[in-house]
Amino acid sequence: MKSGDAVVGNVAKIAALFPQCVNECEEMLMGGGRKLTLKIDWDKLRAELDPNIIQEGEERYQFTWPDKRASSRLANTPTDKTLRPDVAASKDFWTTENLYIEGDNLDVLKVLRENYLGKIKMIYIDPPYNTGNDFIYNDDFAQGREEFEANSGLFDEDGNQILDPMQRNTEANGRFHTDWLNMIYPRLKVARDLLASNGVIFISIDDNEVRNLKIICDEIFGETNFIAQIVNVNNIAGRSDSRHIATAHEYVLMYQKTPSFISNGLPLSDEQKKEYRFEDEKGRYRQQGLRKRGSGARREDRPNMFYPIYYSPLDNVVSLSPTSYSIEIYPKLSDGTDGRWRWGKDTFSKKISYVEVKLVQGRNEYDVFEKVYLGEDGEERTMKMKSFLLDARFTSDTATTEYRSLMPAKTFESPKPSNFVSLLAQIGTSKDSIILDFFSGSATTAHAVMKLNAEDGGKRKFIMVQLPEVTDEKSEARKAGYETICQIGEERIRRAGEKVKDEAGLQGHNMDTGFRVLKLDSSNMMDVYYTPDEFDNSRLLDSVDNVKADRTPLDLLFQVLPELGIELSAKIEEKEVNGKKVFFVNGTYLIATFDIEVNESTVTEIAKMKPQYFVMRDASAANDNVFDNFEQIFRHYSPDSIRKIL
Residue 572 and residue 96: Cα distance in Å, rounded? Predict the structure, then answer.
């Protein structure tokens, strides 16, 4: 009843690469039993990798902080938490493919790792910037002064200060960064597992932690997978948060999981399209000089790109071979010296249909151009996104105006502009991608996904994760009736979805603007891990039902989905089979019943449907005969079905 242990998966990877380095070892259990586990033989592994192993005491490039090892281990440990559905708080619960999850995002990410491993195309997060008043996560890394100083390296074993007092950070400053790093590190580590091999992550941040974030992202995602540090001018007037410089920008760090990520281009602006002022039978185009300009434009820079092009004005033919009436054209620089073309002869031959020669006005000489078309093969030309963004659509003022057009004023501070997140989704996703935001806040990402789907007809799905942080009793949010940040985000999605649908008209008729609310909670199962001396006869009846009394059949279904690798957004139908409530997930892929008094007739009817998986409760059986005949029924009607008893 726990999520997978990432360490076990890592041992399996080592076993696949170096099977001789992994052995079966007997391990003692708490109750006195024994089990066999796979363990790595470090001496053998060292022999396989030496001399590529860093030796003890060997200098290396590294970035560390107190409790970094504990933070890394935390990412690998399993969780026994489960996700419980809240139909009342959801919108279109039974049909939507979008998720809104309430809970600590580290545990939620570990649950999602079960069935979304390698499935998320894009992650966007806007985590706490560590400004001093927005840090709300605590993963038990709190340290007192003595413990911090012992781990910090500021003092020797005798308590003598090693560093000069003038160079030492204050206690507050040191722990300030440490706590933030211990919060963000395990979350990013688990998030990487969720990304598809061609996935991408965008992280908003400001100057407080951008340097540290960049270093740990280099470590988690790999320095070679860094794509860009995007600068967004989100406050053109500048904020008065510094005595010297009015800060006008924030950053977005962009990393790919592997080099297989391919970004999408962005549509050209109307102004850019005006450059395509020429037209022929292929369509509109602009001219780009074939002669190289700028650095490296001289003949000696690329001698193989200096060659004559032959042009016949009589029949407008361009060639690499001379004729009796052709004109010879060489690439010349403005000072009359030899230059070079942008293409070699092979490229010129392949793209000769894109070459155009024109008489240069006022110079009585010909120049050679490439015809760059606005669109070819039905696809319009796009442009790369720039690393510096100065656009009124992406500012804090625009974000605030957008938020207040939907929600009561001042119920959420500093939302992000949905246009900005839509821009990132444009370059980072395809039309059927899953987009995850595990610092959801006001649910800007959900709004952005719905807007983008309305614009391009996409079917992108979103997963929002937000800690149910309680709003201040005196805040405008509480006055408006929102007790938690989650309630604000959920209401924004409802209102934004209706607005997006309304503005999309007919195109938005079948849009998915719903969301399925799931809440992180303790396991649905009773605590039955008792040692013999703690167990007494008075607790005997407690073990008759192994499910907690307040849990519903739908709760149990959503515990089963991750265990079977089924997405939490799967289509669910509730039907009756022989008078019993039965869940059908993705048709008959999974059939589950947690009803009581289930007899052989119900099991037989389900077996005849040949599900991939069938799940029922231990306490569901009408009598012992049901379980006695259970396996025989399935072996007869559906031997390939995988059966599971809770």
Answer: 10
Strand order of the β-sheet with 642-645 is 572-577, 580-585, 590-593, 613-616, 642-645
The Cα–Cα gap between 243 and 111 comes to 45
* Contact call for residues 216 and 72 (beta carbons, < 8 A): no
> Looking up tokens 């489960």, which residue turns up?
82
Q: Is the dihedral of CA 182, 185, 188, 189 positive or negative?
A: negative
How far apart are alpha carbons 510 and 500 in whole angstroms? 12
* Cis bond before residue 51 (omega within 30° of 0): yes
User: Per-residue pLDDT tens for 120-153?
Assistant: 999 999 999 987 765 555 554 444 444 544 544 4
Distance CA 256, CA 226 (A): 7
pLDDT of residue 480: 95
Phi, psi dihedral angles at 412 (to 5 degrees): -150, 130
Angle between helices 171-194 and 210-217 (to 10 degrees): 40
In angstroms, the CA 594 to CA 306 distance is 78
Q: Checking DSSP bridges between strand 516-521 and strand 572-577, what pairing results, if any? A: unpaired
Pairing between β-strand 379-380 and β-strand 382-383 as defined by DSSP bridges = unpaired
DSSP-derived 3-state class of residue 579 = coil
Sign of CA dihedral 376, 379, 382, 384: negative
Tally Cβ neighbours within 10 Å of residue 602: 22
| Identity of the amino acid at 51 | P
Q: How far apart, in whole angstroms, are the C-alpha atoms of residue 342 and residue 352? A: 13
Residue 523 neighbours by CB distance under 10 Å: 16
DSSP calls for 121-147: EEEEE-----SSS------S----HHH
Which SS3 state, helix, strand or coil, does residue 201 take? strand
**pLDDT tens digits, 518-529:** 999 999 988 754
Q: What is the rounded CA–CA span in Å between residue 604 and residue 633? A: 6
Distance, CA of 417 to CA of 404 (rounded, Å): 12
- Entry pTM: 0.83
Structure confidence at residue 386 (pLDDT): 95
Highest mean predicted confidence (pLDDT) among 7-11, 170-174, 286-290, 595-599:
286-290
Measured distance CA(123)–CA(424) in Å, rounded: 10
Task: Report d(CA 389, CA 423) in Å as an integer.
Answer: 11
